[in-house]
Amino acid sequence: MVWLRLDGAQAATDQLAQLYQSLGEVRVIVLADQPDGDEALSLFSAGVRGYCNAHATAASLRQIAGVIEAGGLWIGESLMKRLVVSTRAAISRLPVARLPLGPVSGEGSPMSALTKREVEVARAVASGASNKEVARQCGITERTVKAHVGSVFQKLKARDRLHLALMLNGQRPS
Amino acid sequence: MVWLRLDGAQAATDQLAQLYQSLGEVRVIVLADQPDGDEALSLFSAGVRGYCNAHATAASLRQIAGVIEAGGLWIGESLMKRLVVSTRAAISRLPVARLPLGPVSGEGSPMSALTKREVEVARAVASGASNKEVARQCGITERTVKAHVGSVFQKLKARDRLHLALMLNGQRPS
DNA sequence: ACCGCCATTGGACCAAAGGACAATACCGGG
DNA sequence: CCCGGTATTGTCCTTTGGTCCAATGGCGGT
User: Fold this and answer.
1) pLDDT, tens digit, for every residue of B143-163?
2) CATH 3.40.50.2300 fits domain A12-92
3) In terms of CA atoms, which chain A residue is nearest residue B23?
4) CA neighbours within 13 Å on the CB side: how many for B36?
5) Domain B116-168 has CATH 1.10.10.10
């Protein structure tokens, strides 16, 4: 694991090339002050293994380090979306099987199934959109967005949009 | 990759044991409707490879699948914190070196360094705490929390607490 | 036809979040 | 000693976020 600081005056990719030359086999994770999709892309094609916000939590960094240690890449959610096209192939190559186990009796819980609209709204909110923005991109009133959001909160037992975001991103609010 | 539905009436661990018996070499990721740390722990000791919210984004799930494919575990931020004690050893075993590269000239950017207090507040906020809660757990006024939060927003160019959360968790808001 | 679920929207209302402008106090360095 | 950065708190005000009660229209199943 290497910690270094890029010289702002020189192209990052050049410095990386230089680094790879002098050190040979290294795995680089770039921590950016102001993450940018395009920068990330060029860095990845320059051989970088991970790219995330410079202010990420220690826990996040450990997690990232773990992933890269295991031979993976860490690209973050948004960039992930931009890369889906090129990676979908690799992902869909995974063998998938479905095993219904038991009569799906359990169910029990408080019926947490979200409707299509609710899922749509929930995802938007979880990615940082305001009610107004969600309203615009869904072509509905902000009032209606609130209705859906509220219903999502109930079903998922989230107390506010931030907790919802944490949940939908594979984490759990404290 | 296996998709199945646990029978609510039977202990999850029992069903897992059964599953492992019938399928042998499988990697299980549990998607919980209401994630719970203790449940997660018992599931992990039962051999589960991943544990996250059942409503996680498709992108998140792909990411998780990737990590597990690479031989890793996916435990999520909060549980991670609970496990730090037991995993710290493994993590600190990673070789670490520091290479100052260049005269740290760049710097340039708009001075993004957060103060200790700001980091403390930012982390709390990013984990889902309200201003009031942060105030309580820091022993300061809610007003002061707002001051710090505001300053963090400026330095990190986050437009609101949700975006801040997304940033601090290794992602990037859309 | 009636019922339940979904999507939609309205209005009112209250709490939380953020921004604007400003003040006080501590601390370390030139 | 004065200056700058940090920490703290204040008030005022605007914008968002969330909840409650209520209503309308569509759709599929009994």
Assistant:
1) 999 999 999 999 888 999 999
2) yes
3) A99
4) 7
5) yes
